[in-house]
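Hi support team,

I submitted a single chain yesterday and got back a structure, but I'm not sure I'm reading the token output correctly. Could someone confirm the output below corresponds to the sequence I sent? I've pasted both exactly as they appear in my results page.

Thanks,
R.
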Amino acid sequence: MIRRLLLCALLVVPSFAHAQHDNVEWGYEASAQEQARADAYRSHALRVADGLADTGGSRELVLAAIQRRSALTMIRDGDAPSFRVPPDAEAGAWMRAAAARAGDDVIANQLLVGAARGEDSAIRRDAARRWQAAEPDNLMPLLYLDLPTDELLVQARRSIHVETHMYDGVRWMVSALLRHPPTPMERAAIADGGPYVAEEAAAISAMGIWLAFVGPNLLPLRQACGDAELRVVPARAADCRHVATLLADRSGSAMEQGIGLLMLRELAGSQAEREAIDVRRKRRDWQMQRWGALAAQQPRDGAEQFVRLLADPAIRTEQQLVERVLQEAGVSLEPPAGWTPPGR
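Hi R., thanks for writing in. Yes, this is the structure output for that exact sequence:
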């Protein structure tokens, strides 16, 4: 079930992100069953968008724009040719209204930062500035200001933590989506004969939106702090180490922690330092691998457990959620002696 719902989400979210970010043609050949689910998902998303927009709230307006644009970029039929997605006037109006009302609402500004791409670049930068003003010691909003690398690294000196508020945003989106359930016909098509659990469907959609839109692109920062760049601009080294340490030590996201540890290893000045970092990377890899394996053993790939843990306000970060999953299964947080991450 969770894989089927994820397929519907993947037919929506990445297509919009790709079209908005790159503004290029794309195409996909869907099966008849996939197309039926996509049609149901599209009709539901358009109705959700209208319902959210009617509330007039900033968060609701930007989520409405995401839902509408996503629905309009979905595959029209099983063998549709590639096509270019034109800007949608109504979604654009919702984005502008959301930006005007966002104020210092961090979640609203994060959603705007993620959704405002291409023709909405000014909205994106303004939302990032508002987010930065609300959290001046947070590294994350700096990554969306489109700053030159050296200016970004200098401004990052005052950052003391990395906070995406991912689960805060996902929890809010879940609550918003649950207020607009699918019709019985839509639900049957989306479920495709399997069980349809509203909370699970909303959580999967919300996570898909967050990961596709709001997750930061850290590749340019990592490249700027790589060996080749540092040989050209060695003065960056201290600032790069500060940013890498924040990602590794002060982020609750496994992806950001992993990139931070990789950067720290590349910046390490001794074999002992590299070996210490390798121990941390191995622990992280073990936990992520076991989390995936445990989820795969559960019905619907662990969707019920994810929804239950997401509802626990004590769990604020991905790392906390992973540790809870392992603890509930009686799995050690430390890798066994001799364990080696696959492919390393």
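A quick pointer for reading it: The first helix runs from residue 2 to 22. Let us know if anything else looks off.

Best,
Support desk
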